[in-house]
Amino acid sequence: MSWDRPIELRCGVQHYAWGGRGHDGQPPFIADLLGEREPGHRPYAELWVGAHPSLSAQVVHGTGVRPLSDEIAAFPEEILGRRLFRRGLSTLPFLLKVLDCHEPLSIQAHPDQALAERLHRRDPKNYPDANHKPEIAIALTPFRALCGFRPWEQIRADVVRRAALREFFGTDLGMAAGHVPAARLRRLWSRLLTAPDAEVAGVLQKLTQTPAAEGSGFPADQLCLHLVHRFPGDRGCIAAYFLNLLNIAPGEAVFLGAGEPHAYLCGTIVECMANSDNVVRAGLTPKFIDREVLLEMLTYDDVPPLVRRGRVGAHGERIYEVPTPEFRVEIWRQEAGAAWRYSGRDTVSLLLVLSGAVRLRNASGVESRAQRGTAWLWPAACGSLEVTAEADATEVVRAMPAG
C-alpha cells in the first residue's frame, strides 16, 4: 500500500432508534448520501468516519479491505505524520461523523480526560475507551438542540410560573436563594435527578394535563409536552426548563466541552470529536443511565453557549476551530472547474464528500475521483493535494488535528 496518495474508505453506519427514516418515497439522509436507494425500514442515525475500535472505517485494498485502525497501527508515522507519531499516538486523535436526528437523543454530557480514564477502568462495557470527548456540531439542515444551562433567573421564573414545578422544587428553590448560581443550579438539578420515579411521573402528569400547557407560548412548555409524548414518565423531559434551546441554521455550529449537559433534538449535522464514544446519560433513552456520575461531573455554568460560524480561509473554505488540540474542521464549497491546493501540514486528514465530486491530485500527479458520499484518508505522507471541483455546489468536509 502506498501512502503518498488519498485512500478511499468504507465507513459504517449506526442504526440507533432516533436516526433518520425514509418518508414520501425518499431515503434517510445518510442512506441517500451513501447511494443506498432501498435502505428498508431501519433508522440511519450516524455515519462514522474514523478509526475508533467500536466501528473503524475500512481501508480499500483493491478487492479487499482492512480496518483503518490496523493500518495506522502498522504504519503510524506514514499515516499520522511525524508530529503525532513523536507524541506517541497510535491512532487518530479525532472521529468524524454525520448525525441525522429524527427523534431526540438522550440528556447527556461527556467526561474530561481524568474522569474518562476512571470510568473506563471501572466499567469498560458502558465506557468503551479512556478518552475525553469534546465535540463540535455543525448544522447541515436546520438543527435544534438543548445545550448548557439557561441563566438562573430564567430557570427560576419558569419554575415559579408552573405550579407543578413550584411544588416539586419549592423547598430547594427557597434554600438555593442565597447561594451562588452554580450551587443553585446543582441543588435543583440534583432534586430532579434523584427524586423517586413515581414522584417525577406525577409532576409530568400535572404539567401535561394543565390546560395552559397546550396553548402556552413558552418554548419550554411546548418542548416538555413534546418530550413527554415521546418519553412518557421520563425525568429528562423536565430538562426543557433547565437547558438552552438552540435553533442552529445550516453552517452554524456549537462546541461542547467536558461536563456540559446537552441533548440533540432534530436535524442533520456534521460532528467531530476527540476519538471517543464515552457518553454519560441522565434520561430520554433506553440506554445505560448514570445519574450519579452526571451530577458530579457537570460544570453548572449558566452562560449561554456560543453559536459559531467559523472563519473564512484563503480558498473560501469555512474553518471551525475549537479550544482542543485533537481536531478542527473545514468545509470546502466550490463550483465546477474551481481548483485549489491544500497543504497536508505534515499530519493526517479525513475527507467526506457531501455533494458534487472532486478530483484529488497528489504531488506525483496521481489522481483519484471522490464522488458524493465517499470518504477518504489523506495520509501525512501524501503531502499537499490539488483539489478540483467537478460539479457545481460541491461540498467537502475535512477533519484534521488542530495542534
Set out the fold topology:
Layout (H helix, E strand, L loop, with lengths): L6 E4 L1 E3 L14 H5 L12 E4 L8 E4 L2 E4 H7 L1 H5 L1 H5 L7 E8 L5 E3 L3 H10 L12 E5 L3 E7 L2 H10 L1 H13 L5 H14 L2 H13 L1 H5 L3 H12 L12 E6 L4 E4 L5 E13 L5 E4 L7 H7 L9 E2 L2 E2 L5 E3 L7 E7 L4 E4 L6 E7 L1 E5 L5 E5 L3 E4 L6 E5 L4 E7 L3
Antiparallel strand pairs: 1-4, 1-22, 2-3, 3-6, 4-5, 6-12, 7-13, 8-11, 8-12, 9-10, 9-12, 11-14, 15-16, 16-17, 17-24, 18-23, 19-22, 19-24, 20-21, 20-23
Task: Outline the structure in words.
The protein has helices at residues 29-33, 68-74, 76-80, 82-86, 113-122, 152-161, 163-175, 181-194, 197-209, 211-215, 219-230, 291-297, and strands at 7-10, 12-14, 46-49, 58-61, 64-67, 94-101, 107-109, 135-139, 143-149, 243-248, 253-256, 262-274, 280-283, 307-308, 311-312, 318-320, 328-334, 339-342, 349-355, 357-361, 367-371, 375-378, 385-389, 394-400. The chain is an alpha+beta fold. It has three domains: 7-147 and 247-308, Jelly Rolls, CATH 2.60.120; 152-239, no CATH class; 323-400, Sandwich (Jelly Rolls). Strands 5-4-1-22-19-24-17-16-15 form a nine-stranded antiparallel beta sheet. Strand 16 and strand 17 form a beta hairpin. Helix 7 packs across helix 8 (181-194) and helix 7 (163-175) crosses helix 9 (197-209). The longest helix has 14 residues, at 181-194. The relative contact order is 0.18.
